[in-house]
Protein: LHPL6 protein
Amino acid sequence: MASSLTCAGIVWAFLSFLCAVTSCVGFFMPYWLLGSQLEKSVSFGTFRRCSYPVRDESRQTTVMVEQCGRYASFQAIPSAEWRICTVVTGLGCGLLLLVALTALMGCCVSELISRTVGRVAGGIQFLGGKCSCGGWMGT
Structure:
């Protein structure tokens, strides 16, 4: 298989892939904030949560659901800021993954990535990194 990348481009492709996967795993994991509530350990992120309180209408009390999962709907995310953070971080992860997979394909396919495509990919990767970091800083 011929490659359209130089040695530096191949290293960039693999590092891009590792960073994109790390960002996506961080986005999907619910361990951004840790604490306790009702004497139970709780954690949540913008996309998922673990051990969360739910109102039990039949007993008129609040009970802890001790499981991890996504929010039931986009509106179930606790605040507008967290919703914005979820969208911005998800967009950033998507852009990073798109560039990384394109770069990895460039390792196997001849003439896929030219100098111009590499520069555009670098710009998209920069934008994806800014979105991801901006989303994380918003929390």
